[in-house]
């Protein structure tokens, strides 16, 4: 999960709260999972939401790709 947080990159004092996960399963040799996070500021308000795609190769060498996008 720490790798997801690094990929999103939020300001100091903010935190990420996990809101869900969806396993898409194997597609084109990749096992893909989607993770959803809310960015919360220092007073507890949600200021943004993110979707993180975490993909791992099914076959050796089992490469891993993580990408994040802001959804609102």
Summarize the structure in short.
This protein is mainly beta and 72 residues long.
Q: State the separation between the terminal residues, measured CA to CA.
A: 21 Å
Q: Which residue ranges are poorly predicted, with pLDDT under 50 across at least 5 consecutive positions?
A: none
Assign a percent range to the helix content.
under 10%
The beta-strand count equals: 4
Question: Numbering strands along the chain, what is their spatial order in the largest sheet?
Answer: 1-2-3-4
Output mean pLDDT: 92
What is the C-alpha radius of gyration, as a whole number of Å?
Answer: 14 Å
Q: What is the element string, with H for helices and E for strands? A: HEEEE
Strand content: over 45%
Count helical runs.
1
Largest sheet: 4 strands, antiparallel
Structural class: mainly beta
Overall tally of structural domains = 1
Structural features:
72 residues; mainly beta; 4-stranded antiparallel sheet; 1 helix
Task: Give an overview of the whole structure.
- By secondary structure, the chain is mainly beta.
- It has one domain.
- 10% of the residues lie in helices and 60% in strands.
- It is built from one helix and four strands.
- A four-stranded antiparallel beta sheet has the order 1-2-3-4, covered by helices on one side.
- The radius of gyration is 14 Å and the shape is elongated.
